[in-house]
Design goal:
mainly alpha; about 0% strand
Length: about 70
Amino acid sequence: MTPGKVLSMFERQYLEGKTPVDLEPTCASFASWLAATWEQLDGEQRTLLLTVGAALWREGYDLRAGAATKDLW
C-alpha cells in the first residue's frame, strides 16, 4: 500500500458519498481508538493522529455551521 493509494481511497469514499454525515460519532470513535492506542505510539505518530482528529473535529463543526460543501474546487 502506498500513500497515494490511500489518498485515492479517501477521495473515492468522499466522492461516492460514503463519508459520514454526522461526524460526531466518527470523531468520538477515533478518539476512543486513539486513547486506547496512545501508549503504543511515538511522539510523531501522536502528533499526526491528533492533527487528523482536529481535521475531523473541524469538518464536523463546519457541517453543523452549514459551511461544508462537496465542491472540491
